[in-house]
């Protein structure tokens, strides 16, 4: 697995698409830093990139990479290596390269601007953590899709649909439910619902730790009291863990049974 | 040594292999023939654990291909379509191969034979299909193993390389190796094959030497024999 | 005007204090405060040194100056310290502590009842129920005092400075914390509250009712349970105050209820749940404020009308303005700077050519369905806002800044 990871990593690191992904992050972060300046506000703006752009690009780039892997996977598997190791190696190399370009693209401008010596260092750390976890989750989803759908276009469409579902449609249904059941106490529902979607979960994590929730009245207080505490952090980790495991587990399961 | 026991495989509803039994135990060159979709490639992939059989099993040097991966140290497989990671160099791919299955015995020799040395530091995304196929050959043949499974080895090769490859394969036979290959090129079969397995309708339709095949269909060469075989079958279907 | 009055008042006190001095300490001729009070004649000065344990409060019935020289009065959890029932009293440089709490009396470190011309200066009041409780009194100066109530809930805490039916009160440079309401005014007119810091109080930093013609200027209200509430009053001036970090389930920087003819100028509202909450307010001038990083910058409810909101900076608030009532046309927003404004300015006069609608669709959704605030900063929020700005359906179209500024106003 280490060798598959190592060479997969080298391969991907040189990919122009991945470099483009890093450059996009670098440019956007630098621009926002330059235009806004105040770290807290920059981090609030960066939330959108981390919450929505990372899943989108992770899925798209992951799916494109996945279909490339499929072209030579037979060659790899004909060697004395187990499927489990090969596929885990490719998953890790994809996630790690996405993470590295994300860290470079977003981290360097922030570090140059001196975020570590500001009061926003904590918030910045949470932003990085959320980004890293989302890279892991969505590269898992991407590979799951790649090996679940034999046609590249179909897979790409599916990936976009999953992204759209998690980024927007899920919230739409949530809002409809809130409107439909407005007469009932919905706090528990809201908390559970936002834990079941990794994008929402990350958003709530960031809101709870960017001191935004404190400003949101009663519901904000509920969010803060649930997610802003150490106990809440455990729940968030649990929610993340589910989303880290399910796609990878499905991907590993599919590839263990698939003909190449 | 390959033992195929009661092997079946279907993709969706299309049966590709249907209760096949066969054994190859002597050195020699074995050609697996058959029309498109007859299961040649599937058979090879099952041998390498790439395709999982529905029923039955294949034993390579007494190891089940379903259960084990260690037998692959004794087998070299040449996949039909050569594609490699776009952003790796040829050199790095060979390193990866050696990490996966150990030091290769004749890497330099083959690199020279196939004129690949100038491409060592190039990325695959900049290589032509023919060159990629040559690298494919190298990663397969650089290991001195008792069994080679070659899927369409001459496809996408220039004539010079085809000849060199043919000579290489014959040389391996003389060294007591087993070479199983699929091909669409009858001349190649006639030139080097010791035994032929002809796959049709998911079954081994014919098994025998080149001479037996030509004799059975009163043909002048393998090409004609195959053509007659297929025409005969079509007639049968019409009736 | 008030300053001149104060100066004369203090000057008179100083002159009078020469009349007689009574020193109280453990080794002095007079060893107890009771004795000193018995001996004292009007306009005498009583100087206190050392620690005094009290079993009941001392009542001052004649003009006196009580001045501490490192003196501590300890109520031992049983009693307040001073009950002032006379005019022209000065209390200065004392530490008053441990009044204990009481549900039967309004126990205060210093009670002022029906007395005029009272000064409380440089007094430290620690662990008290009420700090200063004044009623039906006039011309009171409360300056440079420190109040720490150490209260933990609304039930075991009372107000730091409590004024009821008073007039012409000056509260200057006090620090009030850990009380129920830091500063409480009811039926108290013509008063000035300047440069105080009221923080970490359980309920309001300042609570202000039925009190007219007052000014509060340069105060800081920070991290109070529910912020500052100003209710049922008119002709109030609120200038250069800072309202910050008043956040919680039901908190405001500034809650205005039935206020009219008042001015809110050059204040700084930062990180409050709601910057300014207006309910049935009329003829307010809200000018030149910085309203930054609040949950809601402004919430306007009820029939607030004829208010002017101009020259303010609305910076990075989660929601700028929220109002569920359609009747907002009488509230004029103009020439404010909105950090969310994305318009352009072709003629370069620093006034955007496109009007700004400060109430977004998502703000409306959140007001209707509180729990949906959990969707804050989601893509859906942006999509709803974009959709609404293209086809306005639910947000009041007349809630609009017709002349939004392109650049924030530099306030000092």
TrEMBL record, chain A:
Kindly state which keywords UniProt assigns to this record, in alphabetical order. Membrane, Transmembrane, Transmembrane helix
- TM regions (residue ranges): 20-37, 43-67, 88-112, 124-147, 159-181, 201-221, 233-252
Q: Does the keyword DNA repair apply?
A: no
Q: Does the keyword Hydrolase apply?
A: no
Q: What is this protein called?
A: Cu-processing system permease protein
Identify the species of origin.
Answer: Thermoflavifilum thermophilum
From TrEMBL, chain B:
The GO molecular function terms of this record are:
ATP binding; ATP hydrolysis activity
Q: Which residues form the ABC transporter domain?
A: 2-226
Q: What is this protein called?
A: Cu-processing system ATP-binding protein
- Entry annotated with the keyword Nucleotide-binding: yes
Q: Which InterPro entries match?
A: AAA+_ATPase, ABC_transporter-like_ATP-bd, ABC_Transporter_VariousFunc, P-loop_NTPase
Q: Which UniProt keywords apply?
A: ATP-binding, Nucleotide-binding, Transport
The record's annotation in PROSITE patterns points to:
ABC_TRANSPORTER_2
TrEMBL record, chain C:
Write down the superkingdom of origin: Bacteria
Report domain Periplasmic copper-binding protein NosD beta helix positions.
Answer: 157-343
Q: Which residues form the signal peptide?
A: none
Q: Tell me which SUPFAM superfamilies the record gives.
A: Pectin lyase-like
Which InterPro entries does this one have?
Answer: NosD_copper_fam, NosD_dom, Para_beta_helix_rpt-2, PbH1, Pectin_lyas_fold, Pectin_lyase_fold/virulence
Q: Which Pfam families match?
A: NosD (PF05048)
**Protein name (Swiss-Prot/TrEMBL):** Nitrous oxidase accessory protein
């Amino acid at each position: 697995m280490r060798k598959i990871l190592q060479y997969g990593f080298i391969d991907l690191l040189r990919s122009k698409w991945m470099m483009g992904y890093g450059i996009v992050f670098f440019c956007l972060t630098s621009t926002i830093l330059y235009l806004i300046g105040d770290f807290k506000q920059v981090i609030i703006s960066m939330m959108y990139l981390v919450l929505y752009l990372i899943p989108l690009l992770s899925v798209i780039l992951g799916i494109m990479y996945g279909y490339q892997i499929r072209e030579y996977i037979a060659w790899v598997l004909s060697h004395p290596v187990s499927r489990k190791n090969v596929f885990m190696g490719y998953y890790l190399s994809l996630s790690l390269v996405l993470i590295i370009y994300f860290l470079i693209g977003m981290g360097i401008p922030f570090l140059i601007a001196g975020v570590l010596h500001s009061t926003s260092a904590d918030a910045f750390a949470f932003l990085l953590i959320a980004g890293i976890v989302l890279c892991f989750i969505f590269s898992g989803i991407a590979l799951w899709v790649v090996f679940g759908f034999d046609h590249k276009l179909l897979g790409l469409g599916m990936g976009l649909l999953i992204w759209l579902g998690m980024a927007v449609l899920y919230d739409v249904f949530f809002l409809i439910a809130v409107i439909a059941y407005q007469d009932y106490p919905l706090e528990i529902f809201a908390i559970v619902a936002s834990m079941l979607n990794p994008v929402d979960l990350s958003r709530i994590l960031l809101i709870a730790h960017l001191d935004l929730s404190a400003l949101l009245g009663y519901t904000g207080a509920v969010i803060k009291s649930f997610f802003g505490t150490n106990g809440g952090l455990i729940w968030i980790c649990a929610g993340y863990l589910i989303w880290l495991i399910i796609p990878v587990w499905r991907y590993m399961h599919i590839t263990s049974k698939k003909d190449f | 040594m390959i033992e195929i026991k009661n092997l079946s495989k279907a993709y969706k509803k299309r049966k590709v292999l249907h209760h096949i039994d066969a054994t190859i135990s002597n050195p020699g060159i074995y050609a697996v023939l058959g029309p498109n979709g007859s299961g040649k490639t599937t058979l090879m992939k099952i041998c390498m654990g790439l395709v999982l059989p529905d029923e039955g099993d294949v034993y390579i040097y007494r190891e089940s291909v379903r259960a084990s991966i260690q037998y692959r140290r004794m087998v070299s497989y040449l996949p039909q379509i050569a594609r490699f990671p776009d952003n790796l160099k040829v050199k790095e791919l060979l390193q990866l191969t050696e990490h996966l299955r150990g030091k290769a015995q004749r890497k330099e020799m083959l690199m020279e034979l196939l004129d690949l040395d100038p491409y060592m530091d190039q990325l695959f995304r900049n290589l032509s299909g023919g060159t990629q196929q040559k690298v494919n050959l190298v990663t397969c043949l650089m290991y001195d193993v008792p069994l080679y499974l070659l899927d369409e080895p001459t496809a996408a090769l220039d004539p010079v390389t085809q000849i060199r490859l043919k000579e290489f394969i014959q040389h391996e036979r003389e060294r007591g190796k087993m070479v199983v290959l699929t091909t669409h090129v009858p001349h190649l079969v006639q030139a080097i094959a010791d035994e032929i397995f002809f796959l049709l309708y998911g079954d081994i339709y014919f098994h025998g030497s080149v001479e037996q095949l030509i004799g059975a269909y009163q043909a002048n060469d393998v090409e004609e024999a195959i053509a007659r075989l297929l025409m005969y079958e079509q007639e049968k279907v019409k009736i | 005007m008030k300053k001149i009055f104060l100066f004369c008042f203090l000057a008179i006190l100083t002159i009078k204090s020469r009349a007689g001095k009574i020193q109280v300490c453990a080794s002095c001729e007079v060893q107890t405060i009771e004795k000193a009070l018995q001996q004292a004649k009007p306009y005498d000065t009583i100087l206190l040194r050392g620690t005094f344990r009290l079993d009941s409060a001392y009542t001052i019935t004649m003009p006196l100056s009580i001045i501490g020289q490192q003196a501590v009065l300890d109520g031992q959890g049983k009693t307040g310290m001073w009950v002032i029932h006379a005019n022209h009293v000065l209390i200065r440089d004392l530490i008053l502590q441990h009044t204990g709490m009481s549900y039967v009396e309004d126990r205060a470190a210093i009670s002022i009842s029906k007395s005029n011309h009272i000064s409380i200066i440089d007094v430290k009041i620690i662990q008290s129920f009420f700090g200063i409780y004044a009623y039906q009194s006039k011309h009171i100066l409360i300056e440079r005092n420190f109040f720490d109530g150490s209260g933990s809930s609304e039930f075991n805490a009372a107000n730091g400075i409590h004024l009821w039916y008073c007039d012409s009160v000056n509260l200057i440079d006090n620090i009030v914390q850990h009380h129920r309401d830091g500063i409480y005014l009811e039926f108290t007119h013509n008063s000035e509250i300047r440069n105080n810091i009221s923080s970490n109080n359980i309920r309001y930093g300042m609570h202000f009712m039925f009190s007219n013609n007052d000014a509060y200027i340069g105060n800081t209200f920070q991290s109070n349970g529910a912020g500052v509430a100003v209710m049922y009053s008119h002709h109030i001036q609120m200038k250069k105050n800072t309202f910050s970090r008043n956040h919680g389930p039901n908190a405001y920087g500034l809650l205005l209820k039935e206020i009219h003819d008042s001015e809110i100028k050059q204040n700084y509202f930062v990180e409050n749940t709601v910057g300014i909450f207006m309910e049935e307010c009329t003829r307010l001038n809200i000018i030149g404020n910085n309203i930054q990083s609040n949950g809601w910058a402004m919430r306007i409810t009820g029939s607030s009308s004829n208010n002017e909101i101009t020259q303010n900076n609305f910076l990075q608030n989660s929601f700028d303005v929220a109002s569920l009532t359609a009747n907002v046309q009488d509230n004029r927003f103009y020439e404010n700077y909105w950090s969310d404004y994305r318009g352009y300015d072709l003629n370069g006069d620093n006034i955007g050519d496109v009007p700004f609608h400060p109430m977004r669709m998502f703000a409306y959704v959140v007001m209707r369905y509180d729990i949906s605030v959990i969707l804050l900063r989601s893509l859906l929020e942006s999509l709803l806002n974009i959709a609404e700005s293209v086809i306005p359906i639910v947000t009041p179209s007349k809630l609009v800044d017709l002349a939004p500024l392109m650049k924030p106003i530099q306030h000092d």
